[in-house]
Structures are given as structure tokens and as C-alpha cells.
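stage 2 :: seqdesign
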């Protein structure tokens, strides 16, 4: 079972909220640190397998697999994935994300992860092809996609393989 919500970023945010609310982090902190250590080997294996898959398929197939994974209901919310990619991307990656959201790319240094998440959330409700456009753009940058972690990469590879089962 994959626990996508136990990423270091999400857990750090949760830990901060719980701490400021005066709650004890004891067992939750232990689970976070144990999961963080386990995640390293799992992510490395998933990235290696993803590289092999990407080398053997075209970008259209990768984009279709990504879109299917993002729509599956088994991945984090699309807006959270976009925010995570924005947060971990290079300046060019961040500019691309802002352009796809219809935001000025020159404001990349002043745009927060949360602002990107909210914009993606709002636009997704209005644009039924948003996920496909993002998937097509991200398929051009598979190295960037690998930052989503093992659970999402496994789901993308599963969706790519579905037609061949």
C-alpha cells in the first residue's frame, strides 16, 4: 500500500500544524521518519523502472498514461501534483507551469506553491482538458515527473501497461 500523503513535504506541514495546535507528535513523527527512510530505496527503484519505460515508449503514450493516472482517483489531487512539481522544478519548469495555468511566467519568483495549487484547482473545474495539456507538457520532461515519487510513478506505469494486459 502506498501512502502518498506521507511525503516529507506533507508530513512537515502536518507536523507544524499539529505542533502549533499543541498536539504531541510522538508516534506520528516516528512513522514519518521510518517512512522517509523506506521511501528512498522505493523511489530509486521506481525511478529506474520509469526511465526504462520512458525509453521504450513515445511521449504521447507517456502523456496518456500520466493523464489516466492523474484522473484515476488513486493519486493525490491533480492540483497537489501540479503544486509539487512546481515546488520541485527548475525555473524553466516553474515558468512552464505558470504558462499552462494562464499565469504570468515572469512572476515565477513571487508565486508560491499554494497559489499554484489553488490556481490548478480552480482551472481544473473550468477546463476539462487541463490534465491532458499538463500531461503532454510533463511528458516532454520525464526527469521532472520522477520527483512525484514512487507511488505516482508506479501508477503511471500501470496505466501505460493497461492496454497491453
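stage 2 :: out
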Amino acid at each position: 500500500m502506498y501512502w502518498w500523503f506521507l511525503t516529507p513535504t506533507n508530513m512537515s506541514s502536518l507536523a507544524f500544524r499539529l505542533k502549533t495546535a499543541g498536539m504531541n507528535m510522538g508516534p506520528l513523527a516516528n512513522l514519518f521518519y521510518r517512512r522517509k527512510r523506506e521511501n528512498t530505496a522505493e523511489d530509486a527503484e521506481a525511478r529506474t523502472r520509469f526511465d526504462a519505460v520512458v525509453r521504450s515508449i513515445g511521449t504521447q503514450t507517456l502523456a496518456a498514461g500520466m493523464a489516466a493516472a492523474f484522473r484515476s482517483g488513486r493519486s493525490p489531487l491533480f492540483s497537489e501534483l501540479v503544486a509539487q512539481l512546481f515546488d520541485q522544478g527548475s525555473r524553466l519548469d516553474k515558468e512552464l507551469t505558470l504558462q499552462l495555468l494562464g499565469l504570468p511566467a515572469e512572476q515565477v519568483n513571487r508565486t508560491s506553491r499554494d497559489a499554484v495549487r489553488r490556481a490548478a484547482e480552480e482551472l481544473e473545474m473550468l477546463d476539462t482538458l487541463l490534465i491532458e495539456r499538463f500531461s503532454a507538457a510533463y511528458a516532454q520532461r520525464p526527469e521532472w515527473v520522477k520527483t512525484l515519487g514512487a507511488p505516482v510513478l508506479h501508477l503511471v506505469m500501470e496505466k501505460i501497461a493497461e492496454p497491453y494486459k
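stage 3 :: structure notes
- Residues 21 and 93 are 35 Å apart (CA to CA).
- The chain has nine helices and no strands.
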